[in-house]
Structures are given as structure tokens and as C-alpha cells.
Amino acid sequence: MYAQLVKTAGTGVKTREEMSDEERNFQDRVDRDEKIEPKDWMPDDYRATLIRQIGQHAHSEIVGQLPEGNWITRAPTLERKAILLAKVQDEAGHGLYLYCAAETLGVSRDELTEELLSGRMKYSSIFNYPTLNWADIGAVGWLVDGAAIMNQVPLQRTSYGPYSRAMIRICKEESFHQRQGYDIMMKMAEGSEAQRRMAQDALNRFWYPSLMMFGPSDKDSVHSAQSLAWKIKIDTNDELRQRFVDQTVPQAKYLGLTIPDENLKWNEERGAHDFSEPDWAEFFNVIKGKGPCNVERMEARVNAWEDGAWVRDGLLAHGRKKSAARTAAE
Amino acid sequence: MADQKALFEFLLRMGDNSLILGHRVSEWCGLSPVLEEDIALANTALDLIGQTQFWLGLAGEVEGKARSADDLAFLRDAWDFRNVLLVELPNGDFGQTLMRQFLYDAWSSIMLGRLMTSSDARVAEIAAKASKEVAYHVERSGDTVVGLGDGTEESHKRMQAALDYLWPYVGEMFDGDEVDAAMVAAGIAPDPAGLREEYDAFVGKVLNQATLTVPTDVFHHKGGRTGYMHTEHLGHLLTSMQWLQRAYPGATW
Ligand SMILES: [Fe+2]
Ligand SMILES: [Fe+2]
């Protein structure tokens, strides 16, 4: 999940009696699964929450280029290099769709970028973990894109039209990414002893951070209830995490890899796997900037933005000269 | 039949140009000045790596020693690379990267155009496919060079500096030797010197639009396409590019 701990604006779910006419009408439309479009009336808190959520998702796509970019220059074959380049290009494209979706809510890409670079807005905690061996690129596709899909498939039905449409486009590509990631893992798992070691090492390091992607348990959260009622959240964090574990366990087994959790076992009664919670203290540390790569990730983004200022200014100035020349010619 | 050794050399030159430039461009991943450029640069790198697979794949076939495109890319040392020096130069700032791209794209689009009528059908086929991609690259890099050259005072200054730095590496693309003579004789590829006039006219026009001044010094560096003397930069590039293949010989990825 690329949007974690998104604080829902407002005071919680209102009863029908507490709602204004506009609010009631809005909620009815959401309940009927009608899509809310940019020009429609919407509660301020709905708009504010969506901006946070879509913005955080967009930032995650952008920062998410970095851990994978870390291996583009070291990809082991031309084909792997091409696949990874295509994936990272897709992720940048996802960022673009999402910034466009956020723009329909009245916030510009530059404003959101400022929020990210100043640290006021976050991106997914997962991208603060390093990619240390080539199997990490497999693990990222398999687990990280896998977890993202888990969250984003239901969000295709989200109430906000532009967000829903962005999700539909994105999900198609994410499932490619996951398959390609798993394919790398297969090659590694079938490979030499060193390669199997890389694969297991990658799984060891990425397992719990992947579980953290869904955010802490939100069963008691009032905020979460409001987001669910507005259908900008479709499932709870725990439901998504469970689904992810249940899907991933057999895949790991097929690879002959061991998920680093001694408590992991099938629970006949629940019809689901029991598993250990990730270390939530670590999660909150990462969110607060104390993850293994937070400093590097932010530094990379800030430098890219600052070093690129002259380029953006130059192209803008040229654009203005051109349109001035056009006007003069008319 | 054409001299297979010469053909192999020629194909290495084509493949190594796109491999090394594609690698350089891929170093920009996630670090561009604006999201659209991240996407465009990744796309350019992707096309160049795709072209590499064709050129080096054919090179391996022609050589006849069962070397794959990957073997050629990842298991040769610097002295066996046949790319021009221009493409192995470091990225520098975004302006330098785009100027290098434009200077290369302009050559590449003309070269591929000629290769489409190659007497070797395999060469003609790769050129036809690649030329579509490169037509787009040169349009884009040309537009960016114009936009930044004729942008602000600072962007102009940076683009002129990039041009001044890169220009002495342009001439190598038009050098010829006995490999080229063999290609010309077999009707496989044109004489590199024969591309110069069209190149100068096209590049001159774009750089003029960009309000940039083409250096008048005709001196140029050489040693890349013959492999006689690469820059110090190539070894470092290969060090990261070839790391996994070298550290874990024989593994399947
Ligand atoms: Fe994505
Ligand atoms: Fe993805």
C-alpha cells in the first residue's frame, strides 16, 4: 500500500441526522456506487483526505524509482536491464497519472512536490529500505508491487472518478511488475548457491517491511471508518495484510524460500494464515525519518529538484519567448 | 561475401555505441529535473538497450564463436569496446547529457537512414526498426537543446559550455578506416565521412535556433571506435555494468 497512515480529515462518520442536505446527497451517491467527479459538490474533508492520499501515493511512485534505480546500472543482462528500465519508467508514469488526479482536486504538482521535499508529506515507508543484492529487485517486484496491487485493485472501485480511473490504468502495469519480479526470484531460486542465498536474504529483509506497507491495524480508528464510508478506502489494513500473506506463502514455498516468521502457520479454523506482526516501533521510526535510507532518498529528491531548477526555468523562459513571438506575428 | 571480421567490427561499433550511451542515460533514473524527463530518459535508454540487443546479437552470430549479445556486453574488457568516445563521457549536468544525446542522435538518425538500404538484409532490418525510435529521440533532444539554449541566461551559458566540451568528440563519428572501406565495398554501410555534410547542415540549423555558437576548431579526439585508446571513464562504467556477470561467472539471471 503506497498510502499509509493517511489521516482522514474531519471528526469521524456523521449520522444521517447530523449531515447537511448536501452531505446526505453526497453520501447517497457514494453508497449507490456513483463516481464523484471534479466539478461535483464534495465535503471539504473528503477533498482534503483525497489530496493527502493521492499525493502520498504519487510521491511513493516517484521515490520508489530510487531503490530500483540503484540496480539499473548493474542489471546482469541486457534483457533484465530493459525490463527494469521499463518498470521504473512505468512507476514515473504512475506518479504522473496520480499528480494529474490530485490536480483535479485543486492542488498543483509543484505544490505537492514542495510538500514532499519539505517533509510535510510522506511516501511509503517501504522505499526507505535499501536494495542490496540483485534478488532485491526480484523481491521488490514480487512483494512490494504485490502489496501495492493488493491495495490498489479494490481502489479501482473508489468513489472519486479520476482516482478510480488512475488505479485501473496503474493496476494493469503493476501486475506485470509483480510477475517480472517473481520471475527474477525463480531464476535466483533455481540458480547457484550464491543466487539462492541472495534470494533468501532479500526475502528476509523485505518480508516485514512489506507487511508494514498496509499500515498498522486500523480496526479501532474513527478516521478509517470515515474513509471507508466515503469509499476512498475499501478494505481495512488488516484485511489487506491477511490477503497478502495468504497469497504470498504458497509463492514462497514454490520458490523453496523460507518466510522469516516462526509463527507462520495455516489456521484451519480461520481458513487463513496466522503470522507475526511486524515491529511497529521500527515502522514509526521509519515514518519519522529514521529508516535506513530516509536521508538518502530525500537528499536524492531534493538534489534532483534543486539541480533541475535551471532546466525548468530555461524551458519555461523559452516557452514564453515562443508564445510572445507568436502573438507578435499575429 | 563481405569480410566477416570487418562486419563483426562494424556491428560492434553500432552495438557498443547504443549500449554505452543507453547505460549512461540510464544513470539518470529518478534524478531528472522534471517527471516528464525521467520518463523520456528511461524511454531513450530502453530503446538504446533494445537496439544493442539487435546489433550485438547479430555481431555474435557473424563472429561465429557462439557469443551472445550478453557475452559481448558483459564479458569484454575496455580495449575490446568499439564505441565512439562521445558516448562514454560522463553525464555532467542535464544540459550536457541532452547535448551529448542530440549530437549522437543527429548522427545516428542519418546513419540509420543510410543503413536501411544496406546490402545485408539483417543490417537493413535492424536499421529500419531503430530509425523509427531515433527519429523520435532526435526530435526530442533537438527541442530540448533549443529550449535550453534559447532559455534563460544561465541555461544558455550551460548549453554553450556543454557544446564546447563535447564538440571535440563529434569528429570521431566521421572517421573511416579499413573496416569502413570493407563495408563500403560490400555495400553494407556508407563511408562515415559521407555523412558529415548532412550532419553539419542539420546540427548547425538546430544549434543556430538554440542561439549557440558551433566551435570552429576542427581538432577532434579519437580512439574509441578503433579501441586504440578509450577515455578513463569507460573502465568505471564497465565496472558497475559488468559486476554481477564477473563476480558470479556462468550464473543464469
Ligand atoms: Fe507503480
Ligand atoms: Fe510497480
The CATH superfamily of chain B is identified as Ferritin, core subunit, four-helix bundle
What's the main sheet of chain B like? none
What amount of the residues of chain A lies in strands?
A: under 5%
Mean pLDDT of chain B: 97
GO cellular component, one term (chain B): cytosol
GO biological process, one term (chain B): phenylacetate catabolic process
Protein name (chain B): Phenylacetate-CoA oxygenase subunit PaaC
Pfam families (chain B): PaaA_PaaC
What does this structure look like?
Chain A: InterPro entries: Aromatic_CoA_ox/epox, Ferritin-like, Ferritin-like_SF, PaaA, PaaA_PaaC. Chain A: Its EC number is 1.14.13.149. Chain A: It comes from Aliiroseovarius halocynthiae. The complex is a heterodimer of chains A (330) and B (253). Chain A is mostly helical. Chain A has a single domain, classed as Ferritin, CATH 1.20.1260.10. Chain A is 66% helix and 2% strand. Chain A has a two-stranded antiparallel ribbon. In chain A, helix 4 packs antiparallel against helix 7 and helix 7 packs antiparallel against helix 8. The longest helix of chain A has 29 residues. The model of chain A has no long low-confidence stretch (mean pLDDT 94). Chain B is globular. The N and C termini of chain B lie far apart (37 Å). The model of chain B has no long low-confidence stretch (mean pLDDT 97). In chain B, helix 1 runs antiparallel to helix 2. Chains A and B meet through helix 3, helix 4, helix 12 and helix 13 of A and helix 1, helix 2, helix 3, helix 6 and helix 7 of B.
